[in-house]
Design brief:
Oligomer: single chain
Shape: rod-shaped
Number of strands: 5
Strand content: 15-25%
Distance between the termini: 139 Å
Largest sheet: 5 strands, antiparallel
Amino acid sequence: MQPPAGSQVSHVPAQRAPSEQLPPAPVPPQTQPPPRRMRTMLTVVAGVLALLCLGGLATGLVLYHRASAPDRSAPDVVVDNYLRAFLVDRNDARADLFTCEGGSQLEAMRSLRADLLAREQELDVTILVSWGSLEIKGEGDTAAVVTVIRRSATVDGIQQSLTDTWQFDVRKQDDWRVCGGVEIN
C-alpha cells in the first residue's frame, strides 16, 4: 500500500541485511549472582567465632578468679595461708587478705617477723619458717588454731632451729579471718 500523497512518511523502502551479513549478536555480560550466600556464610562464621571468643574470655576470667581468690574456707586453711603470706613470702598486702579489719591483735606476729628480719641481717643468713599441723579448737563462728612455728637456719655450717607454740584466734565474718595471734607455752 502506498502512503497518501503529501504525507511525511519516508519513501525509503525498508532494507534488511541478509542474516549472514549481520554481526554476531552481542553476548550479554554474565552477571555474577549476588554475593548473598557468601555474605551470609561469612556472617555466620564471624558470629560463631565471636561467641567462641566471648566464651573463652568468660571461662578465662572465671578460672583466674578462682585461682587468685584467697582461700578462707576453714579456720586452719586461713591460718596456713596467713602464715605463708606473712612469714614465708613476707607480703603484707597478701597477708591482709586473711586478717580481720584492723588486725591490732597481731602485734606479736609483727614482732616475730621483725625479729626474724633483724637476725637475718645480723647473722647474714636466711631464716626458713615452717609450721606443724594446725589444730582447731572451738566451734561456731569463732575458733582457735594452735600450731608450732619452726624457725631454722644454717649458721657457720651448723643447722639451728627454734620452735614456739602459737595460738591464732579466727573469726567467721563472710568467711574465716585471722584476728589475733599469740605465743603460748
